[in-house]
Every structure is written in structure tokens, then in C-alpha cells.
Specification:
With about 425 residues, the protein is of the alpha+beta class. Among the domains are: about 140 residues, no CATH class; about 130 residues, 2-Layer Sandwich (Heat Shock Protein 90). The strands form 2 sheets. A 5-stranded mixed sheet has the order 3-4-5-7-6, with helices on one face. A hairpin with a 2-residue loop joins β1 and β2. α8 runs antiparallel to α9.
């Protein structure tokens, strides 16, 4: 894949991920949401027009008062039509500037500042970065409205509806009421803004938390996959390296026997058996990678097979001194059971490759009280090339297995010998 193709694939993948992560609303839910929005707009329009037409008498000359009756004049009719036109902005919630401008005109006319507050709240929600400017302009208009009610003939509606007297608006109680009402109205509008901000922050935090949760899940899955890859790599190395090392050693012996005319039947049989065992191990690993162990595959590694492992090495001509004591193997977890066998197998394989013909001393002790202790030792042979080239992955795998189970591993030369010393804590099968 070229770099340009890979980039196009990455972009397409990210776009697909965004499309999958973004829920698509169903047509029925969209219709319900649209219907609810239309009903809310109609209700807001009806309520606003009702309130503001009742407040038309606030405008001087819009009504004449005779006792307890008020008669709308031609000016009042024009103001009422302006009210209906202004409140039509309720049907365009996505254009909050229309409601804000219409509300400001109605407030300056002297009707009410209800539409002004609604438009201001919508504009602040739409453009939060302009909150201070919108709040200052709205607060200034509301304050101007209250001062005009207290000092001019504007604003007679509220006092007249309660007292049936036109001059009641100049009484101190109604003057104070105008400012109190203005303060409460601004407070309610600020409360709506804060509530919307809180919901927005909560929604943003929830979306961020969900995003981080998905990211954590993806990282966890990636780590699990990486750990599984490393486990498979260790199992493949440990299972096959041992078999192939034995095959390589005996192939060399077979070549020498053929050159000298010695009977090589036993050596050839060992090569054939080890090659077949390596094939069975490979089948078992492939079966594990698919859906489970396949029929005919080699049995899973277990510490109870260490004795057989050492016997096979002796039969192949390797000098092995073994001391193996295992207690309650059936109580150990599968991880501990497999790790003990694999560590012994790899340590012995390493000794065979780097010290062929030398005695390999194997010590294994496992019990529920002290855990597992594995020690494999062979004499160093300076200047002797390994019989089978190695990459050092086996010793790395031993350390990784020990660390994965919370144990320790000491590997290296000491006083003329190469030692692999591993300690693993006991793990009880649940």
C-alpha cells in the first residue's frame, strides 16, 4: 500500500468511525421532535401576544379610560398589530436575533420586555462568547423601561388592572414594584441562561467521558491483543525451538554417522519423532489461534510432563541430571502449570544449544506453600560456537513469563556455569 493510499484509507476510516459513533435519529423521533417544537412555538406565540396585548394600555394614547373600562384607540390597534408581528419571531427559534430586535422595539414602544428577555436568552445560548454585550444591552433596556414607568405616563397597565385608577402608577408602592419586577425578570432570564449552560457543560462532560471510556476500552483491547501476541510468540518459540534444536543436533550426528558408515537408524528415528512432535505442536498452536485445540494436536504444556521431557532428552543422548518434586499440580492455575513446563523446556534447550555434550543439571520444586523454584545449570564452554544459532528470545521469554506471574528470574554465568534460576509464586486454581 502506497503512502497516499494509506492516508486515504486512514481518512476514510476516521470518517467511518465518526459516522458509527454519531447516533442517527429515527424518522419517527425526528417527526416527534419537529411536532413538539412547532407546538411549543404556537404556545409561546399565543401566550406572548395575550400578555403584550393586555399591556398595550401601557403606551400613552393607546387606550382611553372611563371609570373601570378601557377602550383601545387606533394607536392601540396599531401597537397590537406590531405585537403580533413581533411575536411571530417565536416561529424562528434558530434566528434569535429577530426575537431580540423585535423585543427591543416592543420594549422601547412601552408594551413589555418579555420578548426582549426571550430573545436575549436565545442569543446568549447561540453566541455564548457575546454574553456580556447582550446582557449589558438587555439590562440597560429593562432598567430604562422601569425608570420610564416610574417617571412618565408610560406603564399604567399594571396599576390600573389592580386598582382601576390611572394615577395609581405614581404611588411609591407601584414605583418600587416596577423595579422589583424588572429585577425578578432579569433574574429569571439569568437563571434560564445558567440552566442552559449547566446542561451544556454536563452534556459536554458526558460526551467527553464517553469518548475517554471508548478510548480506554480501545487501549485495553489493544493491550490485551498485544499481550496475547506476546504469549503466542513465547509459546511458538518454546514449543518449536526445543523440538527443532533436538532435530538439528541429531541431524549433525546423522551426517557424521553417514560419513563414517555407522548405523544411523536410531538417530534417524529420533529425528523423525522430533519432527513429527514439532508438527503436532504447530497444529496445536494454530488450533488455539482459531477456535480451540484441534483434534490430534499435541497436549497442552504442563509441569507433569517435565519428567517425560527429561527422559526424551536422555534417550536422545543428552546428559541430564534431574531432581523434580511437584506437589498438588492439579491445584495450580493453567498459567502457572504451563509456565513451569515452558521455562524448564526453554532453559534446557538453551543449554543444549550452547553447551552440547555437557551435563545439564535440572532442579524443579513446586508446592502450594513455597511456589515454584526452577534452576537449570550447565557448564560454560568458552569459544564453542552454539550448535544451533539463537536469537536470545528464549531467555527473554523466560523473564517475561516470570514477570507476568509476579515472580523473579536470574539468568547469567556464575563461577564457570550458566544458570537459569526462576522463582514463581503459587497460584491456586479457582
Amino acid at each position: 500500500m502506497t503512502l497516499a493510499a494509506r492516508r486515504r484509507w486512514d481518512v476514510a476510516g476516521r470518517s467511518y468511525a465518526r459516522d458509527v459513533a454519531t447516533p442517527v435519529p429515527s424518522p419517527r423521533r425526528s417527526r416527534l421532535r419537529t411536532g413538539a417544537g412547532a407546538a411549543g412555538a404556537v404556545g409561546l406565540f399565543a401566550l406572548g401576544v395575550l400578555v403584550d396585548i393586555a399591556a398595550v394600555v401601557n403606551v400613552p394614547g393607546a387606550a382611553t379610560f372611563t371609570g373601570t373600562d378601557a377602550h383601545i384607540t387606533d394607536l392601540g390597534t396599531g401597537v397590537a398589530l406590531a405585537v403580533c408581528a413581533g411575536w411571530a419571531s417565536a416561529f424562528w427559534p434558530k434566528r434569535p436575533v429577530i426575537a431580540l430586535v423585535a423585543g427591543a422595539l416592543l420594549a422601547l414602544t412601552g408594551v413589555t420586555y418579555l420578548l426582549l428577555l426571550i430573545g436575549a436568552v436565545r442569543c446568549v445560548r447561540r453566541w455564548p462568547e457575546r454574553t456580556r454585550v447582550i446582557a449589558a444591552a438587555t439590562g440597560g433596556l429593562v432598567l430604562l423601561y422601569a425608570v420610564r414607568e416610574a417617571a412618565t405616563p408610560w406603564g399604567a397597565a399594571l396599576s390600573w388592572y389592580f386598582t382601576q385608577r390611572v394615577d395609581a402608577q405614581y404611588e411609591p408602592a407601584w414605583i418600587v414594584a416596577s423595579f422589583v419586577w424588572a429585577a425578578l425578570s432579569l433574574g429569571v432570564a439569568a437563571g434560564f441562561v445558567l440552566h442552559a449552560r449547566t446542561r451544556q457543560v454536563a452534556a459536554h462532560s458526558q460526551a467527553r467521558a464517553e469518548q475517554e471510556h471508548r478510548r480506554a476500552d480501545a487501549l485495553t483491547e489493544q493491550m490485551v491483543r498485544q499481550a496475547e501476541r506476546e504469549r503466542i510468540a513465547r509459546d511458538m518459540h518454546d514449543a518449536l525451538a526445543h523440538r527443532l534444536s533436538v532435530v538439528s543436533l541429531h541431524a549433525g550426528a546423522l551426517e557424521a554417522a553417514a560419513a563414517t558408515g555407522t548405523d544411523a537408524g536410531e538417530i534417524a528415528r529420533t529425528v523423525r519423532e522430533q519432527t513429527h512432535a514439532a508438527l503436532q505442536d504447530m497444529r496445536g498452536l494454530i488450533g488455539d489461534l482459531r477456535s480451540g485445540p484441534v483434534a490430534g494436536a499435541s497436549a497442552p504444556s504442563t509441569m507433569r510432563a517435565i519428567g517425560t521431557l527429561l527422559s526424551d532428552l536422555r534417550a536422545a543422548g543428552q546428559q541430564v541430571s534431574g531432581f523434580v518434586v511437584i506437589e498438588a499440580a492439579e491445584r495450580a492455575t493453567a498459567q502457572l502449570d504451563s509456565a513451569v513446563h515452558r521455562i524448564v523446556q526453554e532453559a534446557v534447550t538453551n543449554a543444549m544449544k550452547h553447551a552440547r555434550g555437557a551435563l545439564v543439571d535440572v532442579f524443579v520444586q513446586v508446592n502450594p506453600y513455597s511456589g515454584a523454584r526452577i534452576r537449570v545449570e550447565n557448564a560454560l564452554q568458552p569459544g564453542l560456537a552454539p550448535a544451533v544459532p539463537g536469537g536470545g528470545n528464549g531467555l527473554i521469554g523466560i523473564r517475561e513469563r516470570a514477570e507476568a506471574l509476579g515472580g523473579t528470574a536470574w539468568i547469567g554465568p556464575y563461577e564457570g556455569a550458566f544458570i537459569v534460576d526462576v522463582t514463581l509464586p503459587w497460584q491456586e486454581r479457582v
